[in-house]
Amino acid sequence: MRRLEISARAVLTVAMAAVSIAGTMVMGSVRLAAQESLGEKARRIRAEKENAQAGQPANGQKQMSPAAADLTATVGLIQETDAAKYQEGVRLLLEQERFRVLEDVAAGERVNKTRFTGGEWKLWWFYNALASPAGKGRGVVPDWNAYREKLNQWVGQMPQSVTARVALAQAELLYGWELRGPGALGTIAQEKFDRFMAEVKQAETILNGASEMAVKCPEWFDVMMQVGRAKGWELQDLNTLLERAAAFEPGYFYVYQQMALTLTPKWRGREGDAEKFAEDAANRVGGRPGDILYWEIAQAIMGNPELGKAPQHFVWSRALIGYQGLVAQYGVSTVRQNQIAFMAARFGDYMTADDFLLQVGDRWDPGTWGTQEYFEKVRTWARGTAGPFKKIIQAYKAVNDNVATPEGQRYDGQIAREFTARYARAVQDCKTAADAPTLLILQVGKTGSVQQMLVVPQTASDACLRPKIEKANFSPPPKPEYWVRVSLK
What we know:
Layout lengths: L7 H6 L4 H18 L2 H15 L13 H13 L4 H13 L3 H14 L9 H8 L14 H14 L4 H19 L9 H21 L7 H14 L3 H14 L5 H9 L10 H13 L1 H16 L13 H15 L3 H13 L3 H11 L5 H4 L2 H32 L2 H25 L8 E6 L5 E7 L9 H4 L12 E6 L2
Helix pairs in contact: 2-4, 2-6, 4-6, 5-7, 8-9, 9-10, 9-11, 10-11, 11-12, 11-13, 13-14, 13-15, 14-15, 15-16, 17-18, 18-20
């Protein structure tokens, strides 16, 4: 992480934390200092001096100044690695109207391009935490007016803050969707639609006011892309906005996700347009970043609950390669494991779905699955379908390990002779079935008894052969629980 020189004043105010986090904090502080007017800076320095000279509590411990408290809060949030706790911290700061701390945090995440494990940008989660008022419990209707007023207060106190304006624009946009309600375009009452478009226009105005500010923000493009889609911009104009966003911050994949959503049949595209966009964008970026981008776009579209089970034509192998590249670069998170398991299930890849669901365990993600009932349904399907096949794979591996030894080769020949002598007629009688197996994998016990019998292919019926063979007794194997194969051809 880039480190900048911290001022002597900051060192004094955060002596207890400076050793471990100075570099991270300074970047945000330097950026904020550039945004302050001389008058604001003078008032802040004077307030800090007055607080530093304040009296001591009765216990003799020195009271932390507001500036030091703000700096400590900023550093603590920047160092937070849990996305849920991070969002809680951001919301709490807004509730407490600690706008300067919010500025510091956003500046630090923006400059350092920090990500959570799994590759999600912390800056995106910062804005996501401020996107709407958090309800206080089930059935409680959020107070949008009071919430938007608080964001307007932030803008009023810091008119040159791109962070405050992007947060406010996003809230206005989501409030518009709240007013509009669900439903296709032709089913919305005109009054609701007019109120929706008024909020969209308000969000656009706020964003335009931030477009010429000295500090730029990649989330500005993300929210503006949503505004453009809601207003029905021409695709050429949206493409131009995407090109600007990619030139400013190539790795901020959320803008690509918004463009892909616009190209779905639900909005402005036709079947296959979003998939082609993902392929073209990934090829243009190239290499591992391109594969990761393909995964991010595919996951966003296939995991969007509003699109339901609309036909999709993403390439599963490339999406999986992208996920593997993502994990290699940013590590694995529980949410990402849920997402890849969900996508594997959508593609019908029960083996991969089962692998990742075993890693997920009971840590299911509501944002991915919607309901626990659906999660359990998919998990049951994957386990029930993949389990027997995996058992065959493991047994066949044991067979190959056994026949790789001289004693294993001898026993393999012995079993072949004994099986042919005793069961050739039974095999011939059972071959009349259309779904008869072509290979048996047997586990032979210590005394030569058959402990398990697996058939290949997995879809074959063993109803005819099993009663004849499951009570068989062969020569004792080299060791107990010994796997052998018997070809029925």
